[in-house]
Amino acid sequence: MLVTGEPQLAVIRQSTPDYAGHAVVIYKISVTDGKLYVADPNFPNNRESGKGTETIRTIDFVNGSFAPYPSALNAASSKINFDQIGYFAKTAYVDWAKITSRWAEFEAGTIGNDRFPNYRLYVNSTEGSRLIDNINVDDNEIDIVCKSSEFPKYIAFTDYLREFEVFNGAGQYVSSGTASITVLRE
User: How far apart are CA 38 and CA 81, in angstroms?
Assistant: First the structure.
C-alpha cells in the first residue's frame, strides 16, 4: 500500500478456539501512528449494527506486531478477537486479464454460470409446479425436488436429480436430502 496507495485485502483469523476467519479491506496506513484503517463489512460506514454510532476501525501495530482486531463473523454476532492478520495482493484473487470479460458477464446477467450451474426446483416431482419465489401452496408440507442437467454430479439412475440443502429466510439450516426434501409450513 505504501508503494501503490491502493486499498489492500486483509484476511483476519482467530487462532483459537474456533479458527474463525473474516475478510476486511485496509484503506489507509499511518506509519507514524502504527495504524491500519479498516473497512469492515460488519460495520458498514463505520457504524455499529443497531447503534448507529460511528467508530473508526483500526488494526494497531505495536512492538513489531499487529494487535488483535475485534470484529465478528457477521454484523449480528458477538465480537471476537482476530489475532492473525495477513495481506493478499489484488492479483492474488482476481485474474486482471479477465476483468473485461467478467464485467461483460456481469452486465449480461451470466456472471458465475461457469461456477454455479443452472438448476430448477419443483414441488413434489419434476412433473409438478416449478418452485419459484412467493409461490402459494395449499398443503402444510411439500416435497422439493432439485434438477440440473448442467451439473456434473447427480444422483445415479435419476433424471439429473441433485442433492441439496434448504435454509430459511434467516439463513438457518432447515433440511437436506437426496432426491427430495419435505418442508413443513412455518
Answer: 14
Burial state string for 135-165 with b = 16 or more CB within 10 A and e = fewer than 16: eeeeeeebbbbbbbeeeeebeeeeeebbebe
pLDDT at 50: 65
pTM above 0.85, yes or no: no
Residue 10 forms beta bridges with which residues?
24, 87
For range 88-101, the mean pLDDT: 80
10's grid cell = 486483509
User: What are the distances in angstroms from CA 122 to CA 69, 162, 180?
Assistant: 45, 12, 9
> Which cell numbers in the block locate residue 1?
500500500
Alpha-helical regions (H) of the chain? 90-93, 99-108
Q: Where are the domains of the chain?
A: 8-93, 120-184
Q: Which of 29, 5, 4, 3 has its CA nearest to residue 85?
A: 29
pLDDT interval class at 183 (50, 70, 90): low
